[in-house]
Design a protein that fits this description.
Elements lengths: L14 H14 L3 H17 L8 H13 L3 H16 L7 H21 L3 H19 L2 H10 L4 H21 L6 H16 L11 H13 L5 H17 L4 H5 L3 H9 L3 H17 L3 H9 L8
Helix pairs in contact: 1-2, 1-3, 2-3, 3-4, 3-5, 4-5, 5-6, 5-8, 6-7, 6-8, 8-9, 8-10, 9-10, 10-11, 10-13, 13-14
Length: 304
Amino acid sequence: MAPRTAASSPSPHNLAELDGELSYQWDDQLDHRETAKVVRAIEFSVKTGRPHPTEDFRCVSHAGAALWDCSEVERARLLVKDWRIRTESGLSRHSAEEIQEARVLNSILSARLELRSDDPQAAIAMVQHGVRVIRDAAGGDAALTSMIASGKPSRLVERYAECLAIKIPSARLFVRGRPAMRAQYLESEVERALAIIFSGDLPPKYPRIHALICQTLYAVAERPYSEGAKERLSRLHRFEQATRPSTRRGMVTSGLPDMAIASHRGDKVEELRLAREIEERLTDAELHRHVVALTERRWWPPVR
């Protein structure tokens, strides 16, 4: 992609254009300085403009992720607050379908923020609101289960997959040290995720399916070693590699699934080797928040 010029700079209130610029400066280039400028423009646009509650969601979600990457958690919290104030105050102008969609998306945005802020219980509560909206729209839990089993592309299943991609890591944190709660809060969600992911020979073509595949892989890797878990991890790994974004930002964490699989099979030497490689890449990319999160959450070896 060619470098940006002044003539091609995005309009200050065009969040779609700003999202494209953020993809270039952050995902492709990992340029902290230029990303900061784009995120400030997004923050200004949300605070002073009239963002669309569904069409502009991806840009704001993207900016929140970039802020977390850069250890700007409080700015991410303020962005989510401003977004919800601006969009929810104008929901009455939109169709019933858009209102329903906006409520699910806002619950996803808030839950993702709480997970990144290390409050898994709040994240679960937030995302559960979105799940309830999805189940009601589908006609109940049995109907949603049938939609998943059919393997047919569905906006409701897509949104449910996004919810699970937050709920699963939140539940992993919440039940840590409380194994009796694992079945109640985690295992049923993992099985639902596997049903979505393995609904066909190829991964579902949902924009954020990679996040669900990764989080499901990590959860399965925490289970006791078995041939069944080994087979599932092998397939999840193939799907993860097929869907991982090929951007610089996407490739920085590319060794994490391999590290989880090495841990599952008890290969401490390989697990440690991969952890050191990943930590070096994260440090070189100045993604220090990731190093802190992986350490504090004990999601990689304590001694590297």
